Amino acid sequence: MPRSVPPPAWVIARRRAIGDRIRAARKAAGYSQEEVALRIPMDRATYNRIEMGHAAPLVDSLILIADVIGIPLAELVE
User: Fold this and answer.
1) Is a pLDDT exceeding 80 seen at residue 3?
2) What is the CA radius of gyration of the chain?
3) Tens of pLDDT along 7-26?
């Protein structure tokens, strides 16, 4: 269900920072967005929205992304 009130700016900034860490870790691991999305499985467009900070991922999605990329979940959300 969509939010009726958008999250505060600091939450959006934090979400973008998490997306930046995901992107950096993915690139360091040598994966494309498509490769990670296929291994989760998740639609590539949805995965892209997470990396861009436009989507609020579920904890389960973050756990799967961290596992596929091969880094601890804590590194993504610190």
Assistant:
1) no
2) 12
3) 999 999 999 999 999 999 99
